Amino acid sequence: MSDNPLSQFVIHPYVPIHVGGWDVSFTNESLFMVIVIGLITLLMVLGTRGSRLIPTRLQSMVEIFYEFVENMLEDTCGPKGKPFFPFIFTLFAFILFANLIGLIPYTYTVTSQLVITFSLAIVVFIGATAVGLMRHGLHFLTFFVPKGVPVLMLPMLVPIEILSYFFRPISLSLRLFANMMAGHTMLKVFAGFVIALGLFVGWLPLGFIAALTALEVIVAALQAYVFAILACIYLNDGLNMAH
Predict the structure, then answer these.
(1) Which of 230, 243, 237 is nearest to 131 (CA)?
(2) Which residues pair with 22 in a beta bridge?
């Protein structure tokens, strides 16, 4: 394994595939996206199969997971948000599992790739905007006009509001990408210190790695929550024209 802390983010093709000049190879990143989706599907199937009045531990875990996302969506968007529960649930579950699996040694952190986080963010952005236009028509454009602002200030504030709105997918994707990449880079750096310092001195950075890993687990869950709650907020803007 390379000593370069950034080597863990390199994409390696497993099955080279080129279609019309496009590289669509099956890579380590592709593999772990399949693993993430597979584990989520397995958990949902096993947790909901033969549901009991007195739930098993696995069923309780799935129900808590379900209720957590449901409450988050309802608190943010109200009753109008219920049709979008499958999307928010899938988004939250994918990011959470991808973040947590990436903490296991010799795995790959899917969310450390900006192309993945931006793809998720742009789907949220386009979806929320489309919902707003379909629900409110051109009246949705009034979202960019701050309420209670003097008319003379609108030529200055409206462009700022529009720029801020279109910056949403960039900030949403960068936040998740930067947190995952920074945390894993720090873990790799301190792991190198353990090896370099040897058995007698290496326990110092080793103890720090243990604490940092615990922190990264919290960050992994928190970043999944932040991404999902912001998606709910953006969806609420389209549904209820909240400003």
Answers:
(1) 237
(2) 19
Contact between residue 146 and residue 243 where contact means Cβ atoms under 8 Å apart:
yes
Six-digit token string for 116: 């993945």
pLDDT < 50 stretches in the chain:
1
Query: pTM here?
Result: 0.89
> In Å, how far from its chain's centre is CA 93?
9
Q: Each residue of 11-42: pLDDT tens digit? A: 888 888 888 888 888 999 999 999 999 999 99
What single-letter DSSP state applies at residue 19? E
- CA gap 243, 240 in Å, rounded: 9
Q: Which two tokens stand for residue 204?
A: 């110092």
Q: What is the DSSP letter of 21?
A: T
Strands (E), the chain: 13-15, 18-19, 22-23, 26-27
